[in-house]
Amino acid sequence: MSVNFEELLDKNLSTVNMKLGSLVTGIVIDILETHAIVHVGLKSEAAIPIHEFVDEKGKTDLKVGDEVQLTLEAIEDGHGNTRVSREKAVRKEVWKRIEDCLNGETIVNGLITGQVKGGMTVDIQGIKAFLPGSLAEVLPTKGLDHLEGKYEDFKVIKLDKEKSNVVLSRKAVLEQVNSKEREELLTSLEEGQRLKGVVKNLTDYGAFVDLGGVDGLLHITDISWSRINHPSESLNIGDKIEVQIIKFDKEEKKVSLGIKQLTQDPWEGIENKFPLNTSVMAKVTNLTDYGFFAEIESGVEGLVHVSEIDWTNKNIHPSKVVQLGDSLEVMILVVDEEKRRISLGVKQLTENPWQVFMHKHQEGDKIKGKIKSITDFGVFIGLEGNIDGLVHLSDVSWGGEEEAVRLLEKNQEIETIVLSIDAERERISLGIKQLKADAFNEFTLSKKKGSRVVGNVSAITDERITLDLSEGVQGYLPQKDFANSSLELTLEIGLEIEVIVANITKKDREIILSLRALEKADERDAIKDNAKKNMEIEKASKSNLGEMIKAELLDKKDE
Question: Is the whole model's pTM more than 0.90, yes or no?
Answer without folding.
Answer: no
